[in-house]
Every structure is written in C-alpha cells, then in structure tokens.
DNA sequence: AGCACGCCGACT
DNA sequence: GTCGGCGTGCTC
C-alpha cells in the first residue's frame, strides 16, 4: 500500500504530494486526513505530513521510503477539508501544506527539535571543550545549549568523523487534558446499605456515599466530585480500596471560563420584516441546492435574532450551523447570546482562547458534540459535518481576508463549503461590500432587506463639521467648537460620549490647511502618499510620483501639512480641555492584554467613565444605551488611503458609528469632523443612505475598472537590494505580458509604500482583469518557476483579490 | 527548510 | 596537495 503525503516543508519546490510506502502494521489504520511522520530529504530528517490519498498500485519508478509513524489514530481532516485545501491552495497560489495547517488548531502543528547524538563516546570524551555538554547525556537538544566557538569547531569535527550525529524529533504538542475520574461500582441500594453500617465518625466517607447514591453510572472527574462534596483525596482512595468506586484517567475539556452563568434565552418575536426574511431563509434549509442570501439590514434591525432562529431551525432538522463574526465583534456578550440559545452544543473559536482551549473546542466539533460553531475567520475551517447554514455577519469586514500566508478569504471558503453541503449561506451587513451587493443585484445572491429598527428608536441625527472653517477661525484641529460643546453638554447631563479617532491612513499624506486639497494621482484618483525621506509624493497603486510641492497645487497657499494624530495625544488634549472628565482610551496599546477589551467596555457600560476615546475598534458591535453623542474626530483619514476601497471603508465605518448613538429612549447625536464635508462617502453616511452610496460608488468603480467589475491580483517582489527587486519585478512583468488576455490592465511595477520592510525592498505589480483564462495558469506556473527567484534571493507573493495595497 | 554535491581560494 | 567557503539542485 502507498500513501500520498503533503510534507511540512513550505517551499515552492516541495508543494506537491510525495509517495510513501505504508508498512503492513499501519495498513488497517491509516486513512486520508491523518497526520504522519515521514523521513524526508537525503538526511532522512523526520517531518510531519498529511495523508491525502491512499492507493494500491505498486507501479512506482523509484524505491519508496516508509512512513515512520502515524501521529493520529483518527483522521483529523475530513475528505471535504482535503478537497477544499487543494482547491484553496490552487486558487490562492498558496502552499498546500500551509492551508492544511491553517485548518487545524495551532497545537497540532509539529514542532521540530534538533538534537546532537553521541555515536562514539570515546572520541567525544576526548574533546575537552565538549565534556560539559556530553558528560551526562547521549543526546542533547541543540536549542538547550549555547555553544562557544571552540565547542562549535569541536562538534563540527566530530560530526565529520561520524562520532556525533544530528537527530530530528517531531513533537506533537496537541495534548488532551487528562484527569482522574470516578464511577460508582455499586448500585444505589447497595451504597445505601453500606452507608447504614458505616462508623458514625466516618463523616467524609458518608458524604461520598451520599453523593454516589445519586450519581450516574459513568465516570466523572474527581475534582468535580470534590467541588460538590468537599471530601479529600484519601477518602477516594479508601472508597476504591473498599470496592465502592472505580477510578481511572479520563479526558476533560478545557472550557473557556465565563465569569457569570449564562441565562437561557428564548426566541424573540420577530417583526414583520424579520419574519419574512426568516421564512425565506429557513425555507432553503435541508434542500438539495445551496442558496446564498445577502441580508442587508440597518443597525438595530435585529439581524442576530434572525441568525439565531435560522440556526435553531437547522439544528432542529438534524443539521449543524456555523456563524462567523469579525474578531473584535466576538465579545463575551455575543458568545453569551449564542450560548444562551444553544447551550452546550456551541463551540467558540477565536484568538482569545489559549491553545489548549482552542484544541478542545475543535475536538468537540470534530466529535460531533458541538453542533454550532461561532468564531472568527479561521473558524470557517471547523470540522463540522452536515452543515445546514453558514452565516457571515458584517460580511463586508476586511478581517475575513487573511493577509499573510496562507492568504484566503473566509467568504470564499464559506461559499465553497456551503456548496459542498448544499447549505444555506447568509451574508449579513448593514453596509454590504460592493462585491456582495452587486452579486445580489445580478441575482446570484438573493437580497433580503431590513429597513426598520427592531426596537423602534429613530436613527440619530448626523451633523458634519467642516474642519477647514474651524482651523481658519483659529480653532483646534482635533476638537471643533461644535464637538466640544456637545461633549460639555453630555458631561453636564451626565450622559456618555464616544469619540472615534480614525487611525487608518495615519500621518502619511499631505493636506492643504487653506482649502482642504490633497494631492492625488493623475492615473488612479487616489491620494498620494508622502514619502518624507525621499521628499516625494507617490501613488501606491500605479507608481506615479512627484516631488513634494512647495505650495498647494489647488489654491497656491503654502499650507500643505502632513496629516494625522494619535489617540494618546488626543486623550491628553481632551483631558486638558475637560479636567474633570473620566476618559477611557481604547486603542491597540490599551487592549493588548487578554480580557482588556472586556474590562474597558464593562467599565464604560457601568457608567464609570464619561468619554470613551478610541480607534475604529469602538465602532463595531458596541451598544451602550447611555451614549448619546458619537464624535468622529477625523472622518477623512481613511479616505486618503491609497486604496480603491477607501471611500467604501470610510462610508462603512461612518455608517456603523452613526448607528451607535442613542439606541434607547434618548435621542442620539453624531458629529463628524472632516476636511471633505462634500465627499460623497461622508454625505451618504450622514443621510444613512447605503443605496445612494452604492449607486455612486459602482459608477466610479466601473469608470476606473475596479472590483466588482474587474478582479484584482497583486504581485509583490522583495529583495535585499532595491535595484535587484526592481529588475526582477520588471522581468516578471515582461514575462507576464503575453498572458494578460483581453480587457486586462497591468499597473506598475511600482515601489512599495514602505520602501524597506525587514531589510527587503518591495515592488508591486497590480493586474486588473475580467477573464483569467490565460493569466491564472501563468501565475500558477510562476509559483513553480519560483525556484529561479529563490536563487536570486528574491521573494514573490501573489495576492488574489487583495484587500490592502500597502 | 536542510543537506549533499561540487567547484574555487587560503592554508598545512 | 587539502580544508572549507558558498552556490546549486533536490527531496517520494
């Protein structure tokens, strides 16, 4: 028997299955989807691999190596996931092994240990420098010892002579937690009798017997029994000696702890719109087709309740359900909401879990003990079977795209898995991505709209403050008089304010403080990025660049300034302006620690602070009834991003915060400060007008040939030397030209926005295309011929449908 | 990635 | 004449 194995060597040249011989003793056990250890390369170094196929034909040309060992007793990947991995690797120009690893919890990735093993002790002991290392050991972990120069030469010599050799060990870090468990061996009746005849002073034994009388006939972790009864270790030992109980080791899940118990919730009554959406969605469950819906519902329209009820329906029909949310929305409140409805059958997968917890949650899914999975991006690979519905909430969110290897978009994966399972896919958002909305327009997705708020409070009024005027009048460039007045009013009335500092695109473009003009690219209609070091303005999209102009090209005033401010500085200024206000700052720095977000939000939710000042993370999913003012300090920084999605991102962000104020009985107010009060993204956000924005943005995308009318691919070439990187980039561009096909545009090569990253210079090529018939295979080939690039010490990344252009 | 093979420069 | 530097090719 032979097995095709994908080995854990993530390079372009080894991105293919290798055939190994399966020893007879493994034949009955081995299955596709298992992890194995195989010898690889000339030195037969042991590496982890995945079995992707088994076969019987022995028509191999070469002598095959044997699989060393099986890591798993059960396949960790299903056939579905193996096929998906193959598709995803090809589609996204990723290494198969990287995708396979990404599908599993972190701990299941092998760790490798390099050891030095003594072969000829006599000769090793003859080296005085090495005595301290090998005196007591025959094998030493290379990482555990730091070697001096003399020792290094000594080891080198011995390796050459064969007196020492290098060993490789594959370590599987995935460990189930095992605890001592107990089970009664006697019937309740017998136990009751035993209790009768017990010495009266044997209090602990009596206590244990009472517990056992009402215990089920199954193993229960001993520590849980201790918690309930308070009996000691010795008592269990005695009970075992008496033959009352059986004790053995048992697996126990590391369940993430929750501070307070979860209250079970019942389905809420749906309003008419919600009910109509629910009927349509649930009607497609369990059918033999896969339907995709775009659920477009304004903030507060009750999308989550619909999700919960559709998932409940799927469970009812014996199917499973998956719900994806952006990482930062996966707050304890959200988890609580889902667990409140589905209880123990929910598995939660997100980055806040420890490795052990994550592994255990994953196993609960794998074993079919969890029927509902809630998680962030990577949860899309959860090993659910018989999926009835997949939900992607806030489907427009950029965090669904993994931006480093392996690159994938959870939406694509969800689409694929929904197809496989004939499941219903629901994309939900108040501000859908243009791609999804356009598909709904074309009828590829079914569009469901929710236009009413579930808890009939009206949308807040949004006012826009023109910061050009503020500055002209000698005002502060961070806090306009209007905003300051608003904050003061809230402080007086003891209501809360949320202030958002839009940090995207921070401090790297020029802005004329006289007229608000920002230098833009002639080819792309994108804002030029300031490269202060080179004293240049550069378009990150097509490479267009000009020297920094001394005066504003629009109005001639010498008032072009670099733009941007940090949250820390804003907090300082704010505190100086309102010395008595209690301010909470929420940004990357203050939320780095585990649980910090929860703590901050709880503090604010309890009303222990007046102002919450933060980056866009405060825009998502937060719901504080006492907040009546939301201020956006700098709405336009994200407009200036060198990215064709800049307007879309800005609109989505503003629409989201605009829906946050005054959700309870008190009316809300939103103040947006901007240098571009007339920009359509800001205007449409002001009027809560998604449709208007969609129409206008689609027109622009059409004109400029961007997504969703054109697909995009970004190639990045990195090299230690700038000239080399450029040379290779141009060579690649030339090589690709014949494959471009009709209606395909290649932009660049252009220099990366950060000239040097990790000591490498980057160049980028962006290709816009409609038909990838010749282009995509050419790019696959480029992956394979990457050998040549590697020789030149260059790196190449291919990013399909990139979300950022930095 | 990591290892062997191989072809040129500074040594015993 | 050899040790060892790194550039090159290959891993079932």
From TrEMBL:
UniProt keyword annotations, A-Z: ATP-binding, DNA replication, DNA-binding, Helicase, Hydrolase, Isomerase, Metal-binding, Nucleotide-binding, Primosome, Zinc
Pfam families in the cross-refs: DEAD, Helicase_C, PriA_3primeBD, PriA_C, Zn_ribbon_PriA
Keyword DNA-binding (UniProt): yes
Helicase ATP-binding domain span: 284-450
EC number(s) stated in the UniProt entry for this protein: 5.6.2.4
Transmembrane segments: none
InterPro entries, per database record: DEAD/DEAH_box_helicase_dom, Helicase_ATP-bd, Helicase_C-like, P-loop_NTPase, PriA, PriA_3primeBD, PriA_3primeBD_sf, PriA_C
Keyword Methyltransferase belongs to the record: no
Domain Helicase C-terminal: 547-701
Record's GO cellular component terms: primosome complex
Alphabetized GO MF terms: 3'-5' DNA helicase activity; ATP binding; ATP hydrolysis activity; DNA binding; zinc ion binding
Residues bound to Zn(2+) 2: 521, 524, 539, 542
Cofactor: Zn(2+)
Positions bound to Zn(2+) 1: 512, 515, 552, 555
PANTHER family: PRIMOSOMAL PROTEIN N
Quaternary context: Component of the replication restart primosome.
Family per record: Belongs to the helicase family. PriA subfamily.
Function per UniProt: Initiates the restart of stalled replication forks, which reloads the replicative helicase on sites other than the origin of replication. Recognizes and binds to abandoned replication forks and remodels them to uncover a helicase loading site. Promotes assembly of the primosome at these replication forks.
Protein name: Replication restart protein PriA
Native species: Weissella halotolerans DSM 20190
Organism lineage string: Bacteria, Bacillati, Bacillota, Bacilli, Lactobacillales
């Amino acid at each position: 028997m032979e097995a095709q194995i994908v080995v854990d060597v993530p390079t372009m040249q080894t991105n293919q299955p290798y055939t190994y011989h399966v020893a007879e003793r493994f034949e009955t056990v081995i299955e596709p989807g298992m992890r194995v250890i195989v010898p690889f390369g000339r030195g037969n170094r042991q590496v982890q691999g995945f079995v992707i196929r088994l076969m019987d034909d022995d028509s191999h040309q070469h002598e095959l190596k044997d699989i060393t060992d099986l890591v798993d007793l059960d396949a960790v990947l299903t056939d579905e996931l193996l096929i998906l991995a193959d598709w995803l690797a090809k589609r996204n120009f990723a290494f198969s092994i990287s995708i396979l690893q990404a599908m599993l919890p972190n701990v299941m990735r092998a760790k490798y240990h390099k050891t030095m093993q003594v072969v000829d002790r006599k000769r090793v002991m003859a080296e005085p420098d090495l005595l301290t290392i090998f005196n007591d050991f025959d094998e030493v972990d290379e990482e555990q010892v730091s070697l001096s120069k003399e020792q290094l030469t000594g080891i080198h010599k011995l390796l050459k002579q064969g007196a020492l050799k290098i060993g490789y060990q594959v370590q599987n870090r995935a460990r189930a937690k095992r605890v001592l468990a107990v089970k009664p061996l006697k019937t309740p009746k017998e136990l009751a009798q035993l209790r009768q005849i017990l010495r009266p002073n044997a209090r602990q034994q009596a206590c244990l017997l009472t517990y056992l009388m009402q215990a089920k006939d199954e193993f229960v972790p001993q520590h849980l029994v201790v918690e309930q009864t308070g009996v000691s270790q010795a008592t269990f030992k005695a009970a075992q000696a008496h033959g009352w109980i059986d004790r053995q080791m048992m697996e126990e899940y590391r369940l993430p702890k929750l501070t307070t118990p979860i209250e079970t919730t019942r389905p809420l009554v749906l309003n008419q719109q919600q009910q109509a959406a629910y009927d349509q969605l649930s009607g497609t469950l369990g059918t033999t087709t896969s339907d995709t819906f775009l659920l477009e519902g304004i903030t507060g329209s009750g999308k989550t309740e619909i999700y919960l009820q559709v998932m409940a329906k799927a469970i009812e029909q014996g199917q499973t359900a998956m719900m994806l949310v952006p990482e930062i929305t996966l707050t304890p409140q959200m988890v609580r909401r889902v667990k409140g409805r589905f209880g123990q059958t929910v598995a939660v997968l997100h980055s806040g879990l420890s490795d052990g917890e994550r592994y255990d949650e994953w196993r609960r899914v794998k074993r079919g003990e969890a029927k509902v999975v809630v998680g962030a991006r990577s949860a899309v690979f959860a090993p659910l079977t018989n999926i009835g519905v997949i939900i992607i909430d806030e489907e427009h969110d950029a965090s669904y795209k993994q931006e480093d290897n392996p690159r994938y978009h959870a939406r694509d994966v969800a689409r694929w898995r929904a197809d496989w399972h004939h499941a219903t896919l629901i994309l939900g958002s108040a501000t859908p991505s243009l791609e999804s909305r356009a598909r709904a327009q074309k009828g590829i997705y079914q569009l469901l709209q929710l236009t009413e708020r579930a808890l009939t409070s009206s949308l807040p009024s949004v006012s826009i403050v023109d910061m050009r005027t503020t500055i002209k009048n000698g005002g502060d460039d961070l806090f306009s008089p209007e905003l300051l007045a608003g904050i003061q009013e809230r402080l007086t009335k003891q209501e809360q304010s949320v202030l958002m500092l839009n940090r995207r695109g921070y401090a790297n473009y020029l802005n004329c403080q006289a007229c608000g003009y920002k230098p833009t690219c002639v080819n792309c209609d994108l804002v030029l990025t300031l490269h202060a070091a080179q004293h240049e303005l550069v378009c990150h999209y097509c490479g267009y660049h000009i020297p920094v102009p001394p005066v504003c090209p629009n109005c001639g005033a010498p008032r072009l300034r670099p733009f941007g401010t940090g949250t820390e500085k804003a907090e300082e200024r704010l505190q100086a302006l309102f010395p008595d206000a209690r301010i909470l700052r929420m940004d990357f720095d203050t939320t780095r620690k585990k649980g910090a977000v929860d703590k901050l939000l709880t503090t604010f939710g309890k009303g222990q602070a007046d102002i919450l000042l933060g980056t866009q993370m405060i825009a998502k999913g937060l719901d504080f009834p006492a907040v009546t003012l939301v201020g956006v300090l700098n709405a336009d920084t994200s407009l200036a991003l060198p990215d064709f999605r800049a307007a879309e991102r800005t609109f989505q962000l503003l629409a989201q915060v605009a829906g946050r104020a005054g959700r309870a009985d008190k009316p809300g107010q939103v103040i947006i400060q901007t240098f571009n009060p007339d920009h359509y993204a800001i205007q449409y956000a002001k009027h809560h007008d998604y449709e208007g924005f969609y129409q206008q943005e689609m027109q622009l995308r059409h004109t400029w040939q961007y997504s969703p009318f054109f697909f995009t691919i970004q190639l990045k070439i990195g090299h230690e030397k700038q000239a080399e990187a450029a040379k290779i980039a141009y060579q690649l561009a030339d090589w690709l030209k014949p494959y471009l096909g009709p209606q395909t545009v290649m932009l660049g090569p252009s220099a990366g926005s950060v000239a040097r990253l990790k000591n490498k210079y980057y160049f980028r090529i962006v290709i816009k295309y409609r038909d990838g018939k010749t282009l995509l295979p050419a790019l696959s080939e480029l992956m394979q011929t990457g050998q040549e690039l590697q020789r030149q010490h260059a790196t190449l990344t291919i990013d399909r449908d990139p979300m950022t252009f930095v």
